[in-house]
Amino acid sequence: MLTTESLRDYALNVLGVDKLGVANIERFDSAPDDMNPRFIMPKARSVIVYLKRIVRGTCRGVDEGTNWSSYHIFSYAGLGQMLGLAKDRLLRHIEQHGYDATPLSAVASSREFGPKAPPAAPGLPPREVVIQHRIAGTLAGLGEIGWSKVFLTKEFGPRQRLGVILTDAELEPDPIVTGELCDRCMRCVAECPAGAIDPDRSVGIEVEGHRIEWNDLDLGKCKLTHFGLNKLSGPFFAKRFPGVSFPVADQEVTWLEAWDMGWAMFPTMPALSALSASPVASCGARGCIIACMKHLETTGVLETKFRTAPGFSDGEPWRLDEKPGHLESDHKGFVWDPDKPEVEKPEPSDGKGWY
Ligand code: SF4
Ligand code: SF4
């Protein structure tokens, strides 16, 4: 017999998933049509949400300003693939018990890219209907959405990614728990290199007496930074285009403009395009994940503890400069900072070195 507990046991102990929770479909009753799971699976009775943690050490290189590939490969693209593998096994498991199981993906919603097409039939909302995974995770009792808009759990703080499955199996829902983690410290706001996290304006919903609220994130600024176009948070764009002045915090772009620009610029930045065939997560989520993780670890509210670095790292976060400016006299081609000494050239190899 398929129950919430048997599914959780299978996910955690066979598939290596870190958490699994269930929401009954009624918790989505007030969702707008283009975010309502019933428009994807009319007979859905339960929404299953599971997560795998972002391994903390994959944030090290970004926090040090020395390595971006570990975060992207292990905590973004690779973690998405691992979630997909676990999802495939969960879908088969549910189907073996005689129920339908519909997988969802964490893709952009039509609010971001605009409706692609008219409704498939009269009375249906325009395509695509997309369920926001963080809302689903909250309604399945896994954690809460922080002010940053990132999903938080008591085990890992902001370190996880989510997967969602709809099923017509009627499973016992888990209780919703909110208001225990995000204390509105605003460290995510201060350390977001894009200025994308709004300190004042919020959006939110109310479900079963829980107010679920997050900042009205500037999706355009975030996406430009995420795709490596922010000179403050990575060397990629400045190295390739030293003469272009592009302060991301001053840009007023939609998510779609930023997305298109990121895809257009991505192949021009070899340090990024060597990592992946598609734009990479090159912000490293320094405000919304890393800064928040440090805060929550330091306040002691998280259950996962670390022996030698209980607050991940100390000190002020690094920040590159918008300078050198866009004039040739400022940037001198590829010279990074005219005030700093040039890096010494390595000695010619004698054939006995590491390479
Ligand atoms: S850093 Fe984390 S805990 Fe602090 S306001 Fe942002 S989301 Fe909330
Ligand atoms: S991913 Fe980066 S730019 Fe976007 S909100 Fe998080 S810290 Fe800010």
- Give the distance, in angstroms, between the N- and C-terminal Cα atoms: 58 Å
Q: Which residues sit in consecutive blocks of at least 5 with pLDDT less than 50? A: none
Percent strand equals 5-15%
Largest sheet: 4 strands, antiparallel
Q: Calculate the mean pLDDT score and round it.
A: 91
Small molecules bound in the structure, each named once: iron/sulfur cluster
Domains (count): 1
How would you spell out the order of helices and strands?
A: HEEHHEHHEEEHEEHHHHHH
Itemize the secondary structure elements and their pairings.
Blueprint: H1 4-13, E1 19-24, E2 46-53, H2 60-64, H3 69-96, E3 101-104, H4 110-113, H5 133-139, E4 144-145, E5 151-152, E6 160-167, H6 187-191, E7 202-207, E8 210-215, H7 219-226, H8 236-240, H9 255-265, H10 270-273, H11 286-299, H12 328-331
Antiparallel strand pairs: 1-2, 2-6, 3-6, 4-5, 7-8
Helix pairs in contact: 7-9
This protein binds iron/sulfur cluster (SF4) (2 copies).
One iron/sulfur cluster binds at residues 146-148, 182-188, 291-292, 295-296.
